[in-house]
Amino acid sequence: MQETRRAERPRLRRMREADVRAVARIDRQGRVDPWPRRRFRECLREGLCCWVADQQGLVCAYGVMSVGGQVAHITNLAVRRGHQRCGLGRRMLEHLLGEAGRQDAETVMLEVRASNRAARGLYRSMGFIPAGIREAYYLTGRGWENAVIMVRPLAGRRFPESQGTL
Ligand SMILES: CC(C)(COP(=O)(O)OP(=O)(O)OC[C@H]1O[C@@H](n2cnc3c(N)ncnc32)[C@H](O)[C@@H]1OP(=O)(O)O)[C@@H](O)C(=O)NCCC(=O)NCCS
User: What is the pLDDT of residues 18-31, one digit of tens each?
Assistant: First the structure.
């Protein structure tokens, strides 16, 4: 538990091919539909915004985001189990928001499982607003689950029209 408090604070750096194995392992924690390693490699080759939190050589969190035009899309983000609830998810998210701004995005969006209380709490606390539903978007052990689309305008930018009421 809470390994982050005992050891050096993780530093954020760009993901490398050599990190993919560790990143995919984190992605597999408790998910029935994890990304195959190949998908992370494709993200790197396509130049997506891919970051990890590195604690003395141990990858303990990662985030993947694509930026197209004025919209940034966070497609994957997770924290290694023993490092959760230490602020790392928030730090990674803040970093991605900063990157999105530097790449001139006006809005950041993402999908999150409707049942994922931890992630929804994190996103809400960071200014994301529910903006719609993608039905039967995620596979679960018991069938399909809806995704909640959440969006966040970046500072000084106007919010897009499609705000929902979830
Ligand atoms: C969601 C996740 C990234 C959060 O990362 P984390 O480092 O544990 O979260 P933080 O310590 O930065 O917490 C930030 C906020 O998230 C929310 N949160 C995090 N874990 C929570 C939990 N178990 N229950 C309820 N809220 C939680 C809280 O609002 C928290 O703020 P607080 O500490 O002031 O209450 C992490 O739980 C995780 O990797 N989950 C599995 C993968 C996943 O769900 N990814 C998101 C896919 S969209």
Answer: 999 999 999 999 88
Residue with CA nearest ligand 1 atom 20 = 118
- Per-residue pLDDT, 53: 98
Give me the mean pLDDT over the 141-145 stretch. Answer: 92
User: What's this model's pTM, rounded to 2 decimal places?
Assistant: 0.91
Going along the chain from its start, the domains and CATH numbers come out as: 2-153 (3.40.630.30)
Question: Which of 63, 46, 60, 35 lies closest to 138 in space, CA to CA?
Answer: 35
* Cα 2 to ligand 1 centroid, rounded to whole Å: 13
Separation of 102 CA from ligand 1 center, angstroms?
25
Q: Please report where in the chains the tokens 């009421």 appear, as a residue.
A: 165
Report, as residue numbers or ranges, the catalytic residues: 111, 123
Helix, strand or coil, per DSSP, at residue 125: helix
